[in-house]
């Protein structure tokens, strides 16, 4: 019976803690708080629309320009007192991403979780390790030759594979999962750009590719690590259980593939990123060893693979919902191609865009940015707090906690984007004299992040998205499969849960016959 007093003492201590927690959490601005379980039941019941739930909580703070932060009480889940701070206040975001950059690194939890997959690569490091890679990479990303390399990979996948697949689907009246096709396309592009090898996951048979599958598995297992307290995955890893066992197996497949890819580039260097890094030196002046080159490559593949395809999926969805805007987009592309290729619409759909054509598409760029405002590919992002700090709106963040900034909510706040913030209006990105004009306060639009760690691939992503958007919209009109509804997946990337199921209808340009029949006739 000796266990009883100990048990009672523990019970009493736990009750005191939980009561104290309740008192503390009750005062928070945020969703309702219940004793013991805090906001967890609300989080759970809203898990299928988590981003909208966060947005609603932030709106409920009054959504005034000075206060757009709320704290969720998540005992057992969140670190440091079970409090979880989320903000969408542009002033706070600027403070985190730029002003006090050094106080808000990715931090140890994130780095430990991603370490097996990404090592100390640019995406997963802080301080000096990050800065040297950032400088080296930033030089490469401004070169015209890298843009040309991207244009070449995009060009190849569109003319040889995407059009082939879509033409066939249009002719045979079969539905396609457009998101799946786009994910395959951008995966192929980023592999080509990074290590000069196109795995051709986008091809008519839609083959299973062991590398892409294993990479998906590894990413998913890695993200799972972030959802639960870290001792859980560490124990699983130690004993090789569950998701950790999957991760280990997937990492072997990924490692073998990257081994071959880097070895091949050492034999025949090209204009891909790895070949460029092969000519560089690390901090100590030595060339990067093969193992490091592989990790560098994986970091770029992770950063550049899903983001553009997810954005394009939401773009096509918004275009289907807004026919007048679709019309304006098609009209702009037609006007530009008429200037560069002449009056015959068949010539407009024969080749993907070249550089200069893509550069002229201002309204399309606005529509893509407007898509990212409403559906940012990375909807929530977070940073670690090194020292106690007070955010510009007065919120206290304790050292060792995590502060989340909701990129998704920034775009959906009336106090930030105006009364019409929920509407798809590309024109808000166009200045009076017809130029593309991002908001003056750069922290109102953070889909590409901002500050020293801003996305390196932004220009490449716009180039790629413009080419694909034009290649699809000039040839086809899209319609949703009847009964299909696009839904968000609960994930750190804003995927559509069941893909994007559409039918393609040949489009008639300039009053002539439809372009697919025409293209088929010319190639016959
Ligand atoms: C629509 C497309 C894209 C979006 C919305 C996007 C968004 C982002 C965001 C939000 C981050 C910050 C992530 C974080 O630190 O937590 C980021 C970082 C990064 N992105 Fe992108 N990205 C896109 C496309 C690309 C592409 C195509 C590439 C490569 C070719 C790329 C390369 C990178 C790299 C290297 C970083 C890490 C920068 C650093 O930590 O210093 N991105 N991107
Ligand atoms: C990926 O995960 C699935 C189950 O989620 C599993 O069946 C498959 O074997 C895994 N693939 C690899 C390459 O690890
Ligand atoms: C795309 O490829 C075709 C054939 O190789 C070429 O004629 C065309 O100029 C390329 N376009 C771009 C933008 O590279």
From TrEMBL:
**Which residues are noted in the entry as heme-binding?**
455
Instruction: List GO terms (cellular component aspect).
Output: membrane
Compartment list: Membrane
How does the protein associate with the membrane?
Single-pass membrane protein
Task: Provide one Gene Ontology biological process annotation.
Answer: lipid metabolic process
UniProt keyword Iron present: yes
**Protein name as it appears in the record:** Cytochrome P450
Organism of origin: Malus domestica
């Amino acid at each position: 019976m000796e266990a009883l007093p100990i048990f009672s003492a523990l019970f009493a201590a736990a009750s005191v803690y939980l009561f104290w927690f309740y008192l503390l959490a009750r005062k928070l601005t945020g969703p309702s708080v219940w004793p013991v379980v805090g906001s967890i039941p609300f989080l759970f019941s809203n898990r299928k629309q988590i981003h909208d739930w966060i947005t609603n909580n932030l709106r409920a703070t009054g959504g005034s320009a000075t206060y757009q932060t709320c704290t969720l009480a998540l005992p057992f889940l969140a670190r440091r007192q079970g409090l979880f701070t989320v903000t969408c206040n542009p002033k706070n975001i600027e403070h985190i991403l730029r002003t006090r950059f050094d106080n808000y690194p990715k931090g140890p939890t994130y780095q430990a979780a991603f370490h097996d997959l990404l090592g100390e690569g640019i995406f997963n490091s802080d301080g000096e390790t990050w800065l040297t890679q950032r400088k080296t990479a930033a030089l490469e990303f401004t070169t015209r030759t890298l843009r040309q390399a991207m244009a070449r990979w995009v060009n190849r996948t569109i003319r040889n594979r995407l059009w082939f697949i879509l033409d066939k689907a249009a002719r045979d009246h079969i539905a396609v999962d457009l998101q799946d096709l786009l994910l395959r396309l951008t995966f192929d592009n980023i592999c080509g750009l990074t290590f000069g090898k196109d795995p051709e996951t986008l091809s008519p048979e839609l083959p299973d590719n062991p590398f892409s599958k294993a990479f998906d598995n590894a990413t998913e297992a890695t993200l799972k690590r972030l959802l639960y307290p870290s001792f859980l995955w560490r124990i699983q890893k130690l004993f090789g259980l569950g998701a950790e066992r999957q991760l280990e197996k997937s990492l072997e497949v990924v490692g073998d593939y990257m081994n071959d890819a880097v070895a091949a580039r050492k034999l025949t260097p090209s204009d891909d990123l790895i070949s460029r890094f092969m000519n560089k030196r690390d901090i100590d002046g030595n060339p990067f060893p093969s193992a490091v080159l592989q990790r560098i490559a994986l970091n770029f593949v992770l950063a550049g693979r899903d983001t553009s395809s997810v954005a394009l999926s939401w773009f096509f969805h918004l275009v289907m919902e807004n026919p007048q805007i679709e019309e304006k987009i098609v009209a702009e592309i037609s006007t530009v191609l008429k200037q560069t290729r002449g009056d015959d619409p068949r010539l407009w759909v024969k080749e993907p865009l070249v550089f200069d054509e893509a550069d002229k598409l201002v309204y399309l760029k606005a529509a893509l940015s407007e898509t990212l405002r409403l559906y940012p590919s990375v909807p929530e992002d977070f940073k670690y707090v090194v020292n106690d700090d007070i955010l510009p709106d007065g919120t206290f963040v304790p050292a060792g906690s995590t502060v989340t900034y909701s990129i998704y909510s920034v775009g959906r706040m009336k106090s930030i984007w105006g009364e019409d913030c929920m509407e798809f209006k590309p024109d808000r990105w166009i200045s009076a004299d017809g130029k593309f004009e991002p908001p003056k306060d750069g922290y109102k639009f953070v889909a590409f992040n901002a500050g020293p760690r801003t996305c390196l691939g932004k220009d490449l992503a716009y180039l790629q998205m413009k080419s694909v958007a034009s290649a699809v919209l000039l040839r086809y009109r899209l319609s949703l499969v009847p009964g299909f509804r696009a839904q968000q997946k609960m994930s750190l990337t804003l995927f559509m849960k069941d893909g994007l199921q559409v039918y393609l209808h040949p489009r008639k340009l300039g009053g002539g016959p439809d372009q697919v029949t025409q293209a088929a006739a010319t190639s016959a």
